[in-house]
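Q: Structure tokens for this one, please.
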Amino acid sequence: MPIKVYNNLPAKQILLQENIFVMDEDRALSQDIRPLQIAILNLMPLKQATETQLLRLLSNTPLQVEITLLHPQTYKSKNTSQEHLISFYTTFNEIKHKKFDGMIITGAPVEQMEFEEVGYYNELKDIMEWTKTNVTSTFHICWGAQVGLYYHYGINKHVLPKKVFGVYEHNVMKPNCKLLRGFDDAFLAPHSRHTGISRQDIINHPDVELLSESREAGVYIVMSKDQKQIFVTGHSEYDPLTLKQEYFRDKEKGLNIDPPKNYFPYDDENQYPKASWRGHAHLIYSNWLNYYVYQQTPYLIGKVGENKKSQ
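A: Here is the predicted structure, written as tokens:
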């Protein structure tokens, strides 16, 4: 897929080196196509790494996509330069008058705090409320999934006895769901979190359904019955080395952390880990873009939110 990005966005050069088709602003303007408008609310500390990971996955479709990068206005990033934010990002206040075909809300390293204690929670509540009428479908990742389930449906997270950290096997619970089209019955995905969502809370709620879970990692994919909100508790977007970097970062801090499960060959942290989740990662994003964004969004983007999706 041609992803339209800023001409000098650092992620562009990385993706071009990986032979991924990235379209810059100049070429996109010459095509008589309405691209899908996708907003990414990037709450991760290492924003450039997350940009690259998500753009890589959004490339796996013939659809043209134009990306708008957002960061919280009510929080100053400590790990991404202001120059990068000023050059490539905007804030909710600047785009809240617009409509978007899709939106991604990333995770954030704040899961051990209560939602209300997070400095930008009020801003995030405004954004999540706005998605109900201004976005065709919203894809929530990890902590973004937890806060989304809490805000939209009152389903709270709970602290786990031990961090879920590694690559885990998951099962398909709804094989006829379009989001899971092409999935194997069992597939792998990374997780890195101290909190989880109760399976029973999902099962008991009339407005959401459980699409996938893991015996070890618990609830994985949840979707609202109106198909407008998708919640993924893991990190299918992670690069092969992301868990390794997190592991050694925490070891250097002196934290008591086990190596990520099912990740290092022979459980040897000196071995180079292999990505075993790429196929699933590309499928979930291409299925989301196709079936829940492109197939559902109106051609005239101003009409987004006027009609609810059929179940």
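A few notes: The chain has two domains: 3-238+283-300, 240-274. The first strand starts at residue 3 and ends at 5.
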